[in-house]
Amino acid sequence: MFDLFKARAEAVSAEVHRFAAKGEAMEFIKETFRKEAIADAPQSYAVWTDCPFLVGEDKDALAKEFPGLAFDVTRDRSEQAKIGVTQMHWGLANTGSVCQNSSDPKERLASMLPIIHVAIIGTGQILPDLPALLETVHPKDCAYLAIISGPSRTADIERVLTIGVHGPKRLIVVCVDDLGGNN
Amino acid sequence: MANTEFKQSVDKALHNSNLSGALGRFSEAYATARVKAYEGIDFEQLRERIAAIKGYAAEHQNELAEQFTKAATARGAKVFRANSPKEVKDYIANLCREKGVKRIVKSKSMASEEIHLNDHLVKQGIQVNETDLGEWIIQLAGQTPSHMVMPAIHMTRDEVADLFSKEINERLTNDIPKLVEVARKELREKFLQADMGISGGNMAIAETGTIALVTNEGNARLTTSLPKIHVAIVGLEKLVPTWADAAPILVALPKSATSQQLTSYVSLITGPTPNDDGSMKDMHIILMDNKRSEMAADPIFKQALQCIRCASCLNVCPVYRLVGGHVFGKVYTGGIGTILTAWFDELKKSEDIQGLCIQCGNCKQVCPGKIDIPALILEIRRRLVKEQGQGVVQKAIFSVVNNRPLFHAMLRTASKTQGLVGAKEGFIRHLPLFLSGLADFRSLPAIADKPFRDVFDTIKQPVLPKKVAFYAGCLIDFAYPGMGEKLVSIMNKAGYNVTFPKGQTCCGAPARYNGAYEVAAGNATDNIKALLEEDVDYVISACPTCTGALKHEFIDVYESLGKRDMLPKARRLATKTMDFSSFVKQLVDEGKLTFKEGQSLGRITYHDSCHLKRTLHAEKEPRELLTQAGYQIDEMFECDMCCGMGGSYSLKFPEISKPILTRKLSNIKATGAPMVAMDCPGCVMQIKGGLDKDGAKITVKHTVELIDDLLS
Description:
The complex is a heterodimer. Chain A has 6 helices and 12 strands. Chain A has helices spanning 2-11, 22-35, 59-65, 75-79, 105-112, 130-136, and strands at 15-19, 45-48, 69-70, 81-87, 90-92, 97-101, 116-122, 126-127, 144-148, 153-154, 162-163, 170-176. In chain A, strand 2 (45-48), helix 3 and strand 3 form a beta-alpha-beta unit. Chain A starts with a helix and ends in a 7-residue tail after the last strand. Chain B is an alpha/beta fold. In chain B, strand 11 (423-424) and strand 12 (427-428) form a beta hairpin. The relative contact order of chain B is 0.08. The chains are: A alpha/beta, B alpha/beta. The interface between A and B is large, with 51 and 63 residues.
């Protein structure tokens, strides 16, 4: 299922990386912060919403290592951020989508306002398709269900596909095999 | 006849090379991409399910609206049922006043276009910004959308650069990514400052009170997240019963709309969620009726409520891709747009645009809501005629068509006098004076010296055990009697004697396509009487339009006029009727006809006639016959796209018929095949005439003309 997920996600311009363990995934995310020159300046911040992936991580140390990184996600901080990191609850193999219960507005701020969205997902949370998702999740537990397939896109001018209109210009999906999700 | 102003707008669109170029390229690419998007999916099964869900919803609209209201209210949303556009506008204007709203961002909403909401709000001194890039472009340009999914498809990058330059007071180049970046920056500010976000709704789920929003740009997420007030305007037809019902619609919508597996963002919102400052969102859902309940109560038009607004009917329409949405429907465009305009606006407003439908049936074939769009457009035509009466010219024509002896006498007279207007070598190359516009792009066939009904009497047939009746249709009878002769010969070889009931007359298609159902019923009655007079095994026609009339439309016409007493006979005729190629294919399969062995006849291309493929579903049969006979078929691009004939359509809209034909001819020529075959004498007339004018040395043949000599 992962292979299909990866192929379909890449077909809609998402970048997909798979890691066996959380530690490797963390290294990759840190490397991404470095590459994107995350710093304590507008347009260079990173925001990261609290999530199971961060359990057991030393957030203070992380914030020290990357002065622009904040775990307190606000509208202004997100708007000025280069990277937003959020953990997703589900993946959809046949559309290459990542899905989230984003009833908490911070999840949306971090995943829609920054230029790059890093979406963490447990490989085991990938479902086959959309009907399977609707069987798994019910609105009584999820007031705002977000299904994201690739970065923001438009083809409204002369049908030319252009990436990144209102939402992120890049979607980096970090798949982790040993990630115990919260679903 | 279409009015002058409308004709001018058609003309203007046809001369806008940017428009037809963009639409043409898109629709060509769309056809291929759509097939790919649906790979591995049983489309028929999927749309069957969608039609069932939406059909149920249309029949239980009120009940579902109540259920939705209850569920959404329980989740903390305020739900308002609005009957009229005015009620919607007043509700939002009041809300703005009450909450001190000065700035609004909108995510694309067709319902708000339908009621011209922006104008109303702007008049109240409120700043309203569309945020979907295409919608923002047309808002800046002061235009209306030309496509339901791609509102600004008619505009060039240069035009967009000019608009944006004016907006930000800085000279911009036409670099598309840079223009998109400008929109991102400009609109981001507006999102952050807005007091209210207005969205539409792709679905409203009754069971859970959920609103589904589908976008690629992400503007719906921002619209529903950043401002503290969210108003969703949802037409009653967007209701679906259950949470699980959302799946098939979300699967089909992006595939049919833009050939995507899924749009970048799908949001399923069930009641308000907190704002980022910790307060709760003020969420309002307006369920808008505006004649939707009336539509649901109409036994014929309730089907239109199965639409999921994917716009695939636009993308495959040979006419829409030439003239675009500013001619074809204003707010809701194309095939479905014609129907929605007739209802949500008024029947009268659809008077001109309904005439644009050429009845090729492409849209019906791709509609994920399984709506018979061409049939509903005919119904509009019928109701318009009923309401306003038929035009004088048409009335005169149909009074002739409904009188067989007079009609046939006139055709015979025409065959004698046409030499005066320049008929030679089987073509009328020029028509005098006011008729000249009809023949300037394709030659018309000359009317035969002797109609088939006279030729038939001279044909000597062997005495054979079985009998078929031949229904010729006007074109074979009066223009192409040779096709009829070939048919008789083929039938004789298969062991059938052919009878030609002389009482047969026009199949009624022209009258029906013009909304003159009483005339069509008169034609049906005459034909049924003639064709059922003698007991035959089959009734065979080599014209798919006529075959379709005999098989389906006589029944439809009687049903819609409530002439129930004629139905049993119409059904009996329907079961006996078969199109030529399907029947011959059956005869070959049964071993009653065999092709000569080892014939290598060379390359040929095949044009699918609209009614043969999409009304009679005979696509394989003619191809298999031609291949078995020894031809090698080189498929042309868009082989099943209309040739622009459309019966009297090509007389009413020669300016549209012509470019459709031009495209067809270039697709034929591109195959390099020396011959093109087809199964409709109407298409033969159009394509043969076009190639004659064009000078290309390509032979045009009806399958009936090719088979006979190849049989052993």
